């Protein structure tokens, strides 16, 4: 028995497709399963893979040479990304957050939303004592990141909200399950459930804006966009590649024990990409599909916030 679909349904489907049309989805071939992306020559695509690895390697090497840890290592990515976007990718900065750089300006009420997200980092800057320069810079990044966060929330379409939900369900679930397994595998602080929830919410309010300036914007908004903008023959392979680099990028932040340092490094070289590929590949695919950095940022920030709550 056949059923007819009203014309309005087809119209709605077409509207949804137009809402999420963006250069990354078209170039990477993830906008439509039946569409093949137009790719540049193999040599040029391989050169992009090499450039991306070299940029991450430069960040890691600088971190090791300068002995940067934690927030100082993270904020190093801000000037590196600005240089990368200007001189290597040669794309507007706004494309780090929106694949379609023609989006309208932030409305007046969006500035109020941005101001609301600035309250927590500014409060921490004003009240935290004995705070190092690196943490202050991190909080400054969270303050500035409130603007593209509010811009994204103001311009997020219905189709992009749907993709955000799917990203949280898939990538978020993978990350959260990994955290839960780690929680029961090692000692942790004895905090009450309300205290854990409050710590998670506080972290989420900070991580949402800061991800628009640090880490997520670098790997998805910057490197992933550069890798696939001119087309890719293997969307999932490129997504796993970026995610593996993201995993290895954490190496300079890991404190090694004095004994068996070489063995620890070998384990980390194997373990870090395995842990991050499951989440990172999905973050890349949803970034390309939506063209809105808010989509992977929300899942990433939620995972890290829950990590802090479980700590």
Explain what you see:
The structure is a single chain. With 311 residues, this protein is mostly helical. It is built from 13 helices and no strands. It has one domain. The protein is 73% helix and 0% strand. The radius of gyration is 20 Å and the shape is globular. It starts with 6 loop residues before the first helix and ends with a helix. Residues 1-19 and 32-36 have low confidence and may be disordered.
Radius of gyration: 20 Å
The major beta sheet can be summarized as: none
> What oligomeric state best describes the polypeptide chains here?
single chain
Determine the fraction of residues in helical runs and give it as a percent range.
over 70%
Count structural domains. 1
Class computed from helices, strands and strand pairing: mainly alpha
Distance between the termini: 56 Å
Percent strand equals under 5%
Shape category:
globular
Estimate the mean pLDDT confidence: 87
Are there runs of 5+ residues with pLDDT below 50, and where?
1-19, 32-36
Question: What's the total number of strands?
Answer: 0
